[in-house]
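Justification of resources, computational component.

The compute hours requested in this renewal are based largely on the per-chain cost of generating structure records like the one below. Each record pairs the submitted sequence with a full C-alpha coordinate output. That output is archived, and it is also reused by downstream analysis tasks.
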Amino acid sequence: MSNATSTAMFAAIVAAASPAAFGQTNTLPATHAAVTSHIIQSDEIRASKMIGSTTYDRQNRNIGKVGDIVLNKDGQVDAVVVDVGAFLGVGGKYVAIPLTDIKTDNNRLTLDRTKEQLQQMAAYQLENRDTGAGTSTSPAAGGHLGR
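The structure output for this chain reads:
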Protein backbone atom coordinates (compact mmCIF):
# COMPACT_ATOMS: atom_id res chain seq x y z
CA MET A 1 0.00 0.00 0.00
CA SER A 2 1.34 3.40 -0.91
CA ASN A 3 2.07 6.16 1.56
CA ALA A 4 -0.71 8.32 0.05
CA THR A 5 -3.24 5.48 0.40
CA SER A 6 -2.25 4.87 4.03
CA THR A 7 -2.59 8.57 4.80
CA ALA A 8 -6.00 8.69 3.10
CA MET A 9 -7.22 5.63 5.06
CA PHE A 10 -5.94 7.10 8.33
CA ALA A 11 -7.71 10.41 7.57
CA ALA A 12 -10.96 8.53 6.77
CA ILE A 13 -10.78 6.63 10.08
CA VAL A 14 -10.11 9.82 12.07
CA ALA A 15 -12.96 11.63 10.26
CA ALA A 16 -15.36 8.76 10.99
CA ALA A 17 -14.45 8.79 14.69
CA SER A 18 -14.49 12.58 15.08
CA PRO A 19 -18.27 13.10 15.28
CA ALA A 20 -18.41 10.73 18.24
CA ALA A 21 -15.53 12.43 20.01
CA PHE A 22 -16.48 16.02 19.26
CA GLY A 23 -20.23 15.51 19.21
CA GLN A 24 -20.50 14.92 22.95
CA THR A 25 -22.71 17.37 24.78
CA ASN A 26 -22.61 18.80 28.26
CA THR A 27 -24.38 16.52 30.75
CA LEU A 28 -25.83 19.48 32.73
CA PRO A 29 -28.69 21.45 31.24
CA ALA A 30 -27.77 25.06 30.49
CA THR A 31 -30.11 26.33 33.21
CA HIS A 32 -28.43 24.37 36.02
CA ALA A 33 -25.35 25.65 37.78
CA ALA A 34 -22.69 23.19 38.79
CA VAL A 35 -21.80 22.78 42.44
CA THR A 36 -18.58 24.75 42.89
CA SER A 37 -17.60 23.37 46.28
CA HIS A 38 -17.98 19.95 47.80
CA ILE A 39 -18.00 21.10 51.42
CA ILE A 40 -20.45 23.37 53.21
CA GLN A 41 -19.26 26.98 53.37
CA SER A 42 -19.24 29.36 56.33
CA ASP A 43 -22.04 31.47 54.80
CA GLU A 44 -24.33 28.43 54.25
CA ILE A 45 -26.73 26.64 56.58
CA ARG A 46 -28.33 23.20 56.24
CA ALA A 47 -32.15 23.20 56.11
CA SER A 48 -32.23 20.16 58.40
CA LYS A 49 -30.36 22.15 61.07
CA MET A 50 -32.51 25.25 60.57
CA ILE A 51 -35.87 23.47 60.99
CA GLY A 52 -36.60 23.20 64.70
CA SER A 53 -34.04 25.85 65.64
CA THR A 54 -34.97 28.57 68.09
CA THR A 55 -35.01 32.11 66.71
CA TYR A 56 -33.95 35.06 68.84
CA ASP A 57 -34.54 38.81 68.68
CA ARG A 58 -31.70 41.35 68.92
CA GLN A 59 -32.07 41.41 72.71
CA ASN A 60 -31.31 37.68 72.79
CA ARG A 61 -34.89 36.68 73.69
CA ASN A 62 -36.47 33.50 72.35
CA ILE A 63 -39.16 34.55 69.85
CA GLY A 64 -40.07 31.24 68.21
CA LYS A 65 -38.90 28.12 66.37
CA VAL A 66 -38.43 27.47 62.69
CA GLY A 67 -41.28 25.14 61.76
CA ASP A 68 -40.60 24.69 58.06
CA ILE A 69 -38.96 26.07 54.94
CA VAL A 70 -41.15 26.65 51.88
CA LEU A 71 -39.64 26.37 48.39
CA ASN A 72 -41.15 27.78 45.22
CA LYS A 73 -41.47 25.80 41.99
CA ASP A 74 -37.95 26.85 40.97
CA GLY A 75 -36.45 25.41 44.16
CA GLN A 76 -35.70 28.80 45.72
CA VAL A 77 -36.62 29.50 49.36
CA ASP A 78 -39.93 31.38 49.33
CA ALA A 79 -40.35 31.66 53.11
CA VAL A 80 -39.05 30.46 56.43
CA VAL A 81 -42.05 29.55 58.58
CA VAL A 82 -41.62 30.43 62.25
CA ASP A 83 -43.89 29.11 65.02
CA VAL A 84 -44.55 32.04 67.40
CA GLY A 85 -46.61 32.43 70.54
CA ALA A 86 -46.88 28.77 71.42
CA PHE A 87 -46.71 27.74 75.05
CA LEU A 88 -46.31 23.99 75.51
CA GLY A 89 -47.47 23.54 71.92
CA VAL A 90 -50.76 25.42 72.42
CA GLY A 91 -51.88 28.80 71.15
CA GLY A 92 -49.15 29.46 68.62
CA LYS A 93 -49.32 30.29 64.97
CA TYR A 94 -47.03 30.15 61.99
CA VAL A 95 -45.75 33.31 60.30
CA ALA A 96 -43.76 33.55 57.07
CA ILE A 97 -40.43 35.35 57.18
CA PRO A 98 -38.22 36.06 54.15
CA LEU A 99 -34.97 34.12 54.36
CA THR A 100 -33.05 37.37 53.92
CA ASP A 101 -34.47 38.65 57.24
CA ILE A 102 -32.89 35.81 59.22
CA LYS A 103 -29.29 36.28 60.29
CA THR A 104 -26.94 33.71 61.73
CA ASP A 105 -25.27 35.23 64.75
CA ASN A 106 -23.01 33.18 67.03
CA ASN A 107 -24.34 29.97 65.45
CA ARG A 108 -27.94 31.04 66.21
CA LEU A 109 -30.81 32.40 64.14
CA THR A 110 -31.58 36.06 64.82
CA LEU A 111 -34.40 38.30 63.59
CA ASP A 112 -34.55 42.07 63.77
CA ARG A 113 -38.13 41.79 65.06
CA THR A 114 -39.73 41.28 68.44
CA LYS A 115 -42.01 38.43 69.43
CA GLU A 116 -44.87 40.96 69.62
CA GLN A 117 -44.24 42.06 66.03
CA LEU A 118 -44.29 38.44 64.87
CA GLN A 119 -47.52 37.75 66.79
CA GLN A 120 -49.17 40.69 64.99
CA MET A 121 -48.31 39.26 61.56
CA ALA A 122 -50.86 37.35 59.52
CA ALA A 123 -50.94 33.61 60.16
CA TYR A 124 -49.32 31.44 57.50
CA GLN A 125 -51.15 28.26 56.49
CA LEU A 126 -48.81 25.38 55.67
CA GLU A 127 -51.57 23.49 53.87
CA ASN A 128 -54.13 24.69 51.35
CA ARG A 129 -57.16 22.38 51.37
CA ASP A 130 -58.56 23.96 48.19
CA THR A 131 -55.52 23.11 46.07
CA GLY A 132 -53.84 20.33 48.06
CA ALA A 133 -50.63 22.35 48.30
CA GLY A 134 -48.56 21.46 51.35
CA THR A 135 -50.12 18.02 51.81
CA SER A 136 -48.15 14.81 51.68
CA THR A 137 -49.89 13.72 48.47
CA SER A 138 -49.95 15.61 45.20
CA PRO A 139 -53.14 17.47 44.34
CA ALA A 140 -55.37 16.07 41.60
CA ALA A 141 -54.40 18.85 39.18
CA GLY A 142 -50.76 19.93 38.91
CA GLY A 143 -48.58 19.13 41.87
CA HIS A 144 -45.34 18.85 39.92
CA LEU A 145 -42.37 20.99 40.87
CA GLY A 146 -40.87 22.98 38.05
CA ARG A 147 -43.90 22.83 35.77
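Residues 47-119 form a domain with the SH3 type barrels. fold (CATH 2.30.30.240). The first helix runs from residue 3 to 22.
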